[in-house]
Write a structure and sequence with these properties.
By secondary structure, this protein is mainly β. Helices cover 0% and strands 22% of the residues. Strand 3 (69-72) and strand 4 (79-84) form a beta hairpin.
Length: 93
């Protein structure tokens, strides 16, 4: 959606081949590899960042460094899981 709530683009995908399976129940998100690619094609998507990049540019470096806090699943269902250096927690919503 643009700033005026007009739908600019949408993608229909599945959790089965040929779509990448790296986001199936892992808390990871599918990300468009490059804005220059056709977003309707499964090969244009991958789990580039371990925990997604909402409202940020996708990082194609894939350095493998994880953030200190992990929050999943995405989207949240009934229970939100938080993992971090201080321990693991679950919050029932």
């Amino acid at each position: 959606f643009n700033p005026w709530d007009k739908l600019m683009d949408e993608v229909y995908y599945t959790s089965e081949q040929p779509w990448p399976s790296c986001a199936n129940g892992t808390g990871n998100t599918l990300e468009l590899i490059s804005p220059d690619l056709d977003n309707s094609l499964p090969e244009s998507w991958n789990c580039i960042n371990t925990y997604g990049s909402p409202k940020a540019i996708n990082d194609t470096s894939n350095s493998g460094e994880a953030s200190a806090v992990i929050i999943y699943p995405n989207p949240v269902q009934n229970i939100l899981f938080v993992e971090g250096n201080s321990g693991d927690y679950s919050i029932e919503i």
